[in-house]
TrEMBL record:
<dbReference type="Pfam" id="PF00162">
    <property type="entry name" value="PGK"/>
</dbReference>
<comment type="similarity">
    <text>Belongs to the phosphoglycerate kinase family.</text>
</comment>
<keyword id="KW-0547">Nucleotide-binding</keyword>
<dbReference type="InterPro" id="IPR036043">
    <property type="entry name" value="Phosphoglycerate_kinase_sf"/>
</dbReference>
<feature type="binding site">
    <location>
        <position position="325"/>
    </location>
    <ligand>
        <name>ATP</name>
    </ligand>
</feature>
<keyword id="KW-0324">Glycolysis</keyword>
<protein>
    <recommendedName>
        <fullName>Phosphoglycerate kinase</fullName>
        <ecNumber>2.7.2.3</ecNumber>
    </recommendedName>
</protein>
<keyword id="KW-0418">Kinase</keyword>
<feature type="binding site">
    <location>
        <position position="203"/>
    </location>
    <ligand>
        <name>ATP</name>
    </ligand>
</feature>
<keyword id="KW-0808">Transferase</keyword>
<feature type="binding site">
    <location>
        <begin position="61"/>
        <end position="64"/>
    </location>
    <ligand>
        <name>substrate</name>
    </ligand>
</feature>
<keyword id="KW-0067">ATP-binding</keyword>
<feature type="binding site">
    <location>
        <position position="120"/>
    </location>
    <ligand>
        <name>substrate</name>
    </ligand>
</feature>
<feature type="binding site">
    <location>
        <begin position="23"/>
        <end position="25"/>
    </location>
    <ligand>
        <name>substrate</name>
    </ligand>
</feature>
<dbReference type="InterPro" id="IPR001576">
    <property type="entry name" value="Phosphoglycerate_kinase"/>
</dbReference>
<comment type="subunit">
    <text>Monomer.</text>
</comment>
<feature type="binding site">
    <location>
        <begin position="355"/>
        <end position="358"/>
    </location>
    <ligand>
        <name>ATP</name>
    </ligand>
</feature>
Length: 399
């Protein structure tokens, strides 16, 4: 476990302005939060600081607005969901720096909670510029990082701030690291990893290291389409990052060299529209129609995935196998999740899964409580698994 200061080291927090980095990058459907797990996980830190009389100022990102204020990536609707989870009023400020933030903070009483607008609306956040970090730091007396799931990003609010203010780990940051160490510190082999989802470009690079640490890598979701395309398969209009073909081919070579089995889909469920109950058909991956998208892996592929889950002693999973939010494209993810839950309950598998959407998928399958551990983190958890230093954790350790 890294040695860092925690809320226990805060001393008297009464009246202190606490800048608390949380991960509110939660799944949203029709403008409403569809899975509040990430909010529930940071609630203890927020409550504890509020009860200690701190002015709790929440910093968070939502989506990838690339340094511009984008209306549908505002955190304003999320403030309502945070309020519901906490059962306590949460004020909102329309900017995370400058007058809007300063005025809202000036109006706070001890114990109040305020959420500031999306930090990624400013270019300085992802670039981690000293100017932006200083503009944030000006708003607080102390910095608490409870966003383990964003700790793989060296951004101003996840890393830079710790250079300006006394820095502490929040309760979830502590708990995640403890739980991952306990579940995966010395994983029992064979270790099977499942990586799916949509964030192909930000996750593909870590696969080359992951294949040296696991015995089998099951690839699903948009990630699988990218690997299939790299092998010359026509994936039609599927979510696919064609420019990553060379990277994908290199990972396949790295896996072979490391003796890691790669499990790619052999069939898929395709549709022409990305919507619930869209007309769909199951096809071999070599027969994906040019005008269709593969939105889920097919039944033969799920059978293979479940065989690997049965063979595994440890399972690490980030990223759903398909577009699980829209039935029937949730079928493979639900089947694999339920099978992993059964193996865990039978005592043959240690199962650790993480990621904003992966947690939502496990909840959708009704099995989140049956996994050994469910992390709020996806990319951060995989990087931790690789043995990489997470900038958001390292800076707390240094502090
Ligand atoms: N074949 C697919 N086509 C399009 N989207 C997909 C596909 N498979 C998975 N997805 C999408 O991937 C998203 C989750 O990916 P990601 O953000 O990487 O996972 P996590 O949040 O768990 O880390 C979901 O919204 C899901 O709909
Ligand atoms: O949702 C997140 O990560 P995840 O999809 O890996 O679980 C985090 O909020 C990080 O978001 P980012 O991948 O846009 O930096």
């Amino acid at each position: 476990m890294p040695a860092f200061k925690t809320i226990d080291d805060l001393g008297d927090a009464s009246g202190k302005r606490a800048l608390v980095r949380v991960d509110l990058n939660v799944p949203v459907s029709d403008g409403k939060v569809s899975d509040a797990t990430r909010i529930e996980r940071v609630a203890p830190t927020i409550r504890e600081l509020s009860q200690k009389g701190a002015k709790v100022i929440l910093l968070a990102h939502f989506g990838r607005p690339k340094g511009e204020a984008v209306a549908d990536m505002s955190l304003k609707p999320i403030a309502i969901a945070v309020e519901e989870v906490l059962d306590q009023h949460v004020a909102f400020a329309g900017d995370c720096i400058g007058t809007a933030a300063e005025d809202a903070i000036a109006a706070m009483n001890n114990g109040d909670i305020l959420l500031l607008e999306n930090t990624r609306f400013h270019k300085g956040e992802e670039k981690n510029t000293p100017e932006f970090a200083a503009a944030l730091a000006k708003l607080g007396d102390i910095y608490v990082n409870d966003a383990f799931s964003a700790a793989h990003r060296a951004h101003a609010s996840t890393e830079g701030l710790a250079h300006y203010l006394p820095a502490y780990a929040g309760r979830t940051m502590q708990a995640e690291l403890e739980a991952l160490e306990k579940g995966l510190g010395a994983p029992k082999r064979p270790v099977v990893a499942i990586v799916g989802g949509a964030k192909v470009s930000t996750k593909i690079d870590l696969l080359s290291n992951l294949v040296t640490r696991v015995d089998a890598l099951v690839i699903g979701g948009g990630m699988a389409n990218t690997f299939l395309a790299a092998q010359g398969i026509d994936v039609g209009k599927s979510l696919c990052e064609h420019d990553l073909a060379d990277t994908a081919r290199q990972i396949l070579k790295d896996a072979e060299a490391a003796g890691c089995a790669i499990v790619l889909p052999v069939d898929g469920v395709v549709a022409r529209e990305f919507k619930a109950n869209a007309d769909n058909e199951t096809v071999d991956v070599n027969a994906i129609p040019a005008d269709a998208m593969m939105l889920d892996v097919g039944p033969k592929s799920v059978e293979k995935v479940n065989e690997w889950i049965s063979k595994g002693a440890t399972l690490v999973w980030n990223g759903p196998l398909g577009a699980f939010e829209i039935p029937p494209f949730d079928t493979a993810t639900v089947s694999a999740a339920r099978h992993a839950a059964e193996c865990t309950k039978a005592g043959t598998l240690t199962s650790v899964a993480g990621g904003g959407d992966t947690v939502a998928a496990l909840n959708h399958a009704g099995v989140a409580d049956d996994f050994t551990y469910v992390s709020t983190a996806g990319g951060a958890f995989l990087e931790w698994m690789e043995g990489k230093e997470l900038p958001g954790v390292a800076v707390l350790t240094a502090a």
